[in-house]
Amino acid sequence: MNHDLGPLLLIVGCLVAVTTFAQDGSPVRTQRINKAIELLEQGQPVYYTTARGGYDEGLEFAATESDYINYEMEHGAFDISALRAFMQGLVDAGPTVSGHRTPAVIVTLPVWGLDAPSMRANAWVVQQVLAAGVHGILLCHTREPGAAEVFVQASRYPFAPEVEGLEQGLRGSGSQAYAARIWGVTGNEYLRRADAWPLNPAGELLLGVKIEDTYALENAERTTAVAGIAFTEWGPGDMGFWVVGLPRPGAQQLPEMQAARARVFQAARTNDIFMLHTCNEDDVVDRLEEGVMICTGGYRAGRAHTGRQMPW
User: Fold this and answer.
1) CATH superfamily ID and name for 6-306
2) Domain coordinates of the chain in residue numbers?
3) How far apart are the first and last CA of the chain?
4) Closest CA to 223 of 247, 200, 246, 207
5) Which of 140, 147, 276, 305 has the most crowded CB, counting CB atoms within 10 A?
6) pLDDT one-digit tens code per residue, 147-202
Protein backbone atom coordinates (compact mmCIF):
# COMPACT_ATOMS: atom_id res chain seq x y z
CA MET A 1 0.00 0.00 0.00
CA ASN A 2 1.18 3.52 -0.69
CA HIS A 3 0.28 4.65 2.84
CA ASP A 4 2.43 5.35 5.89
CA LEU A 5 1.84 2.34 8.11
CA GLY A 6 4.60 3.12 10.60
CA PRO A 7 2.39 4.38 13.45
CA LEU A 8 0.09 1.41 13.09
CA LEU A 9 2.82 -0.97 14.16
CA LEU A 10 2.61 0.52 17.67
CA ILE A 11 -0.79 -1.05 18.34
CA VAL A 12 -0.75 -2.68 21.77
CA GLY A 13 -2.32 -6.06 22.28
CA CYS A 14 -3.15 -6.80 18.63
CA LEU A 15 -2.28 -10.18 17.19
CA VAL A 16 -0.44 -9.56 13.95
CA ALA A 17 -0.37 -12.48 11.58
CA VAL A 18 3.21 -13.55 10.96
CA THR A 19 4.31 -15.72 8.07
CA THR A 20 6.28 -18.78 9.16
CA PHE A 21 7.68 -21.57 7.06
CA ALA A 22 8.12 -25.30 7.47
CA GLN A 23 11.47 -27.00 6.85
CA ASP A 24 10.47 -27.72 3.26
CA GLY A 25 9.85 -24.00 2.68
CA SER A 26 6.05 -24.23 2.55
CA PRO A 27 4.08 -21.54 4.39
CA VAL A 28 2.46 -22.52 7.69
CA ARG A 29 -1.05 -21.21 8.27
CA THR A 30 -1.37 -18.41 10.81
CA GLN A 31 -4.28 -17.85 13.17
CA ARG A 32 -6.16 -15.14 11.28
CA ILE A 33 -9.90 -14.81 11.83
CA ASN A 34 -10.35 -13.65 8.22
CA LYS A 35 -9.20 -16.45 5.94
CA ALA A 36 -9.21 -14.19 2.87
CA ILE A 37 -6.71 -11.82 4.49
CA GLU A 38 -4.59 -14.75 5.65
CA LEU A 39 -4.31 -16.07 2.11
CA LEU A 40 -3.63 -12.67 0.56
CA GLU A 41 -0.83 -12.14 3.08
CA GLN A 42 0.69 -15.39 1.85
CA GLY A 43 0.46 -14.28 -1.79
CA GLN A 44 -2.34 -16.72 -2.58
CA PRO A 45 -5.38 -15.64 -4.66
CA VAL A 46 -8.79 -16.07 -3.02
CA TYR A 47 -12.02 -17.39 -4.48
CA TYR A 48 -15.57 -16.60 -3.40
CA THR A 49 -19.13 -17.81 -3.69
CA THR A 50 -22.38 -15.88 -3.13
CA ALA A 51 -25.11 -16.23 -0.49
CA ARG A 52 -28.13 -14.18 0.54
CA GLY A 53 -30.11 -16.31 3.01
CA GLY A 54 -30.50 -16.95 6.73
CA TYR A 55 -29.63 -19.59 9.31
CA ASP A 56 -30.18 -22.69 7.17
CA GLU A 57 -28.08 -21.25 4.37
CA GLY A 58 -25.37 -20.49 6.91
CA LEU A 59 -25.33 -24.14 7.98
CA GLU A 60 -24.93 -25.14 4.33
CA PHE A 61 -22.27 -22.59 3.40
CA ALA A 62 -20.06 -23.43 6.38
CA ALA A 63 -18.72 -26.28 4.24
CA THR A 64 -18.06 -24.15 1.14
CA GLU A 65 -14.93 -24.91 -0.87
CA SER A 66 -14.54 -21.19 -1.51
CA ASP A 67 -12.35 -18.95 0.65
CA TYR A 68 -14.98 -16.37 1.37
CA ILE A 69 -18.67 -15.71 0.92
CA ASN A 70 -20.02 -12.65 -0.86
CA TYR A 71 -23.24 -11.90 1.02
CA GLU A 72 -25.39 -10.07 -1.52
CA MET A 73 -27.41 -7.14 -0.16
CA GLU A 74 -27.08 -4.66 -3.02
CA HIS A 75 -30.04 -6.09 -4.91
CA GLY A 76 -31.08 -8.74 -2.42
CA ALA A 77 -33.13 -8.05 0.69
CA PHE A 78 -31.54 -5.73 3.25
CA ASP A 79 -32.38 -7.96 6.18
CA ILE A 80 -29.98 -7.63 9.09
CA SER A 81 -31.80 -10.33 11.07
CA ALA A 82 -31.23 -12.78 8.22
CA LEU A 83 -27.56 -11.78 8.00
CA ARG A 84 -27.09 -12.33 11.74
CA ALA A 85 -28.80 -15.71 11.50
CA PHE A 86 -26.60 -16.61 8.52
CA MET A 87 -23.47 -15.81 10.53
CA GLN A 88 -24.74 -17.90 13.46
CA GLY A 89 -25.40 -20.79 11.08
CA LEU A 90 -21.80 -20.63 9.88
CA VAL A 91 -20.59 -20.79 13.48
CA ASP A 92 -22.90 -23.65 14.45
CA ALA A 93 -21.84 -25.79 11.48
CA GLY A 94 -18.15 -24.88 11.80
CA PRO A 95 -15.27 -24.85 11.97
CA THR A 96 -14.13 -25.01 8.36
CA VAL A 97 -11.83 -27.76 7.12
CA SER A 98 -9.00 -25.20 7.15
CA GLY A 99 -9.54 -24.66 10.88
CA HIS A 100 -11.20 -21.24 10.72
CA ARG A 101 -14.25 -20.60 12.85
CA THR A 102 -16.19 -19.55 9.71
CA PRO A 103 -15.41 -18.69 6.13
CA ALA A 104 -14.82 -14.97 5.69
CA VAL A 105 -17.99 -13.06 4.78
CA ILE A 106 -17.87 -9.87 2.68
CA VAL A 107 -21.15 -7.95 2.25
CA THR A 108 -22.14 -5.90 -0.81
CA LEU A 109 -24.15 -2.94 0.46
CA PRO A 110 -27.38 -1.47 -0.96
CA VAL A 111 -25.82 1.94 -0.26
CA TRP A 112 -23.81 3.45 -3.12
CA GLY A 113 -20.70 5.58 -2.73
CA LEU A 114 -22.04 8.47 -4.79
CA ASP A 115 -20.45 11.23 -2.68
CA ALA A 116 -19.29 12.00 0.84
CA PRO A 117 -22.56 13.55 2.15
CA SER A 118 -24.75 10.64 1.04
CA MET A 119 -22.23 8.14 2.36
CA ARG A 120 -22.13 9.92 5.71
CA ALA A 121 -25.94 9.89 5.87
CA ASN A 122 -25.88 6.13 5.28
CA ALA A 123 -23.01 5.27 7.62
CA TRP A 124 -25.57 3.51 9.81
CA VAL A 125 -25.81 0.75 7.21
CA VAL A 126 -22.08 0.06 7.53
CA GLN A 127 -22.50 -0.03 11.32
CA GLN A 128 -25.38 -2.50 11.18
CA VAL A 129 -23.66 -4.87 8.78
CA LEU A 130 -20.36 -4.97 10.67
CA ALA A 131 -22.19 -5.49 13.98
CA ALA A 132 -23.51 -8.78 12.52
CA GLY A 133 -19.97 -10.16 12.67
CA VAL A 134 -19.02 -10.07 8.98
CA HIS A 135 -15.40 -9.71 7.87
CA GLY A 136 -15.63 -6.97 5.26
CA ILE A 137 -17.71 -4.83 2.92
CA LEU A 138 -17.73 -4.02 -0.79
CA LEU A 139 -19.13 -0.57 -1.60
CA CYS A 140 -20.82 -0.34 -5.01
CA HIS A 141 -20.71 2.64 -7.41
CA THR A 142 -17.96 4.42 -5.50
CA ARG A 143 -17.80 7.61 -7.54
CA GLU A 144 -15.67 9.90 -5.40
CA PRO A 145 -12.72 9.47 -3.05
CA GLY A 146 -14.65 11.40 -0.40
CA ALA A 147 -17.26 8.64 -0.33
CA ALA A 148 -14.54 6.02 0.10
CA GLU A 149 -13.04 8.01 2.97
CA VAL A 150 -16.36 8.16 4.83
CA PHE A 151 -16.87 4.44 4.13
CA VAL A 152 -13.55 3.61 5.79
CA GLN A 153 -14.30 6.01 8.64
CA ALA A 154 -17.66 4.31 9.25
CA SER A 155 -15.88 0.94 9.45
CA ARG A 156 -13.39 1.99 12.15
CA TYR A 157 -13.58 2.78 15.85
CA PRO A 158 -12.71 6.27 17.15
CA PHE A 159 -9.58 4.96 18.91
CA ALA A 160 -8.16 3.30 15.77
CA PRO A 161 -4.68 4.62 14.89
CA GLU A 162 -4.89 8.00 13.16
CA VAL A 163 -4.13 8.12 9.46
CA GLU A 164 -3.52 11.24 7.41
CA GLY A 165 -6.52 11.97 5.21
CA LEU A 166 -9.01 10.05 7.35
CA GLU A 167 -11.17 11.37 10.14
CA GLN A 168 -11.71 9.39 13.34
CA GLY A 169 -13.75 6.24 13.15
CA LEU A 170 -17.50 6.28 13.77
CA ARG A 171 -18.35 2.84 15.18
CA GLY A 172 -19.87 2.96 18.64
CA SER A 173 -19.76 1.00 21.87
CA GLY A 174 -22.12 -1.98 21.82
CA SER A 175 -21.42 -2.81 18.18
CA GLN A 176 -18.87 -5.38 19.32
CA ALA A 177 -21.19 -7.60 21.38
CA TYR A 178 -22.78 -9.88 18.77
CA ALA A 179 -19.83 -9.63 16.37
CA ALA A 180 -17.40 -10.80 19.07
CA ARG A 181 -19.50 -13.90 19.70
CA ILE A 182 -19.49 -14.70 16.00
CA TRP A 183 -15.72 -14.28 15.83
CA GLY A 184 -15.24 -16.31 19.01
CA VAL A 185 -13.30 -13.60 20.84
CA THR A 186 -13.89 -11.27 23.78
CA GLY A 187 -15.45 -7.87 23.23
CA ASN A 188 -12.14 -6.10 23.80
CA GLU A 189 -10.32 -8.45 21.44
CA TYR A 190 -12.90 -7.71 18.77
CA LEU A 191 -12.44 -3.98 19.30
CA ARG A 192 -8.69 -4.38 18.77
CA ARG A 193 -8.97 -6.52 15.65
CA ALA A 194 -12.00 -5.04 13.86
CA ASP A 195 -10.07 -2.58 11.72
CA ALA A 196 -9.26 -2.20 8.04
CA TRP A 197 -6.41 -4.33 6.69
CA PRO A 198 -3.69 -3.73 5.53
CA LEU A 199 -4.01 -0.14 6.74
CA ASN A 200 -3.84 -1.75 10.16
CA PRO A 201 -1.56 -4.81 9.78
CA ALA A 202 -3.46 -6.54 12.60
CA GLY A 203 -6.88 -5.68 11.17
CA GLU A 204 -9.39 -8.35 10.15
CA LEU A 205 -11.74 -6.27 7.96
CA LEU A 206 -11.39 -6.32 4.17
CA LEU A 207 -12.86 -3.20 2.51
CA GLY A 208 -13.36 -2.79 -1.24
CA VAL A 209 -14.84 -0.39 -3.79
CA LYS A 210 -16.53 -0.99 -7.12
CA ILE A 211 -15.55 1.36 -9.93
CA GLU A 212 -18.53 0.49 -12.09
CA ASP A 213 -19.85 3.57 -13.88
CA THR A 214 -18.36 6.39 -15.94
CA TYR A 215 -18.49 8.86 -13.04
CA ALA A 216 -16.56 6.48 -10.81
CA LEU A 217 -14.11 5.79 -13.63
CA GLU A 218 -13.07 9.43 -13.82
CA ASN A 219 -11.94 9.25 -10.19
CA ALA A 220 -10.62 5.67 -10.23
CA GLU A 221 -7.04 6.60 -9.40
CA ARG A 222 -7.91 8.84 -6.44
CA THR A 223 -10.63 6.60 -5.03
CA THR A 224 -8.46 3.49 -5.00
CA ALA A 225 -5.72 5.51 -3.26
CA VAL A 226 -7.87 6.09 -0.15
CA ALA A 227 -6.25 4.62 2.95
CA GLY A 228 -8.09 1.52 4.15
CA ILE A 229 -9.30 0.36 0.73
CA ALA A 230 -7.81 -3.07 0.05
CA PHE A 231 -9.41 -4.15 -3.24
CA THR A 232 -11.43 -2.99 -6.22
CA GLU A 233 -13.30 -4.28 -9.25
CA TRP A 234 -14.61 -2.75 -12.43
CA GLY A 235 -18.13 -4.18 -12.33
CA PRO A 236 -18.55 -5.07 -16.03
CA GLY A 237 -22.31 -5.54 -15.79
CA ASP A 238 -23.02 -2.07 -14.45
CA MET A 239 -20.19 -0.48 -16.41
CA GLY A 240 -21.78 -1.89 -19.54
CA PHE A 241 -25.04 -0.08 -18.77
CA TRP A 242 -23.19 3.23 -18.71
CA VAL A 243 -20.81 2.61 -21.61
CA VAL A 244 -22.79 0.37 -23.98
CA GLY A 245 -26.47 0.57 -22.97
CA LEU A 246 -28.65 -2.50 -23.24
CA PRO A 247 -26.62 -5.72 -22.84
CA ARG A 248 -25.64 -7.45 -26.04
CA PRO A 249 -23.32 -10.34 -26.94
CA GLY A 250 -19.65 -9.41 -27.03
CA ALA A 251 -20.18 -6.02 -25.38
CA GLN A 252 -17.32 -6.55 -22.91
CA GLN A 253 -14.88 -6.79 -25.80
CA LEU A 254 -15.74 -3.37 -27.21
CA PRO A 255 -12.78 -0.96 -27.11
CA GLU A 256 -14.48 1.44 -24.71
CA MET A 257 -15.24 -1.37 -22.28
CA GLN A 258 -11.72 -2.72 -22.47
CA ALA A 259 -10.41 0.79 -21.87
CA ALA A 260 -12.53 1.06 -18.71
CA ARG A 261 -11.26 -2.30 -17.50
CA ALA A 262 -7.66 -1.33 -18.18
CA ARG A 263 -8.01 1.93 -16.28
CA VAL A 264 -9.32 0.22 -13.15
CA PHE A 265 -6.59 -2.42 -13.40
CA GLN A 266 -3.94 0.27 -13.65
CA ALA A 267 -5.42 2.20 -10.73
CA ALA A 268 -5.22 -0.95 -8.61
CA ARG A 269 -1.60 -1.55 -9.60
CA THR A 270 -0.62 2.07 -9.00
CA ASN A 271 -2.13 2.10 -5.53
CA ASP A 272 -0.98 -1.42 -4.68
CA ILE A 273 -4.42 -2.84 -3.91
CA PHE A 274 -5.96 -6.13 -4.98
CA MET A 275 -8.05 -6.62 -8.11
CA LEU A 276 -11.30 -8.62 -8.09
CA HIS A 277 -12.43 -10.10 -11.41
CA THR A 278 -14.80 -12.70 -12.82
CA CYS A 279 -13.00 -16.01 -13.37
CA ASN A 280 -13.87 -19.54 -14.38
CA GLU A 281 -11.97 -22.80 -14.73
CA ASP A 282 -11.10 -22.00 -18.35
CA ASP A 283 -9.71 -18.48 -17.93
CA VAL A 284 -8.57 -18.28 -14.30
CA VAL A 285 -4.89 -18.90 -15.10
CA ASP A 286 -4.90 -16.00 -17.56
CA ARG A 287 -6.58 -13.76 -14.98
CA LEU A 288 -4.05 -14.71 -12.32
CA GLU A 289 -1.20 -13.99 -14.72
CA GLU A 290 -2.72 -10.52 -15.21
CA GLY A 291 -2.47 -9.93 -11.48
CA VAL A 292 -6.04 -10.71 -10.36
CA MET A 293 -6.02 -11.87 -6.73
CA ILE A 294 -9.76 -12.16 -5.96
CA CYS A 295 -11.78 -14.43 -8.24
CA THR A 296 -15.45 -15.27 -8.59
CA GLY A 297 -14.66 -18.85 -9.56
CA GLY A 298 -12.08 -21.18 -11.08
CA TYR A 299 -10.66 -22.25 -7.74
CA ARG A 300 -9.64 -25.76 -8.81
CA ALA A 301 -7.48 -24.66 -11.72
CA GLY A 302 -6.37 -21.53 -9.89
CA ARG A 303 -5.17 -23.32 -6.78
CA ALA A 304 -3.32 -25.88 -8.89
CA HIS A 305 -1.62 -23.05 -10.81
CA THR A 306 -0.35 -21.35 -7.64
CA GLY A 307 0.60 -24.60 -5.91
CA ARG A 308 -1.75 -24.08 -3.02
CA GLN A 309 -1.79 -26.84 -0.44
CA MET A 310 -5.27 -27.77 0.73
CA PRO A 311 -7.21 -27.62 3.00
CA TRP A 312 -5.39 -24.33 3.63
Assistant:
1) Phosphoenolpyruvate-binding domains (3.20.20.60)
2) 6-306
3) 25
4) 207
5) 147
6) 999 999 999 999 999 998 899 999 999 999 999 999 999 999 999 999 999 999 99
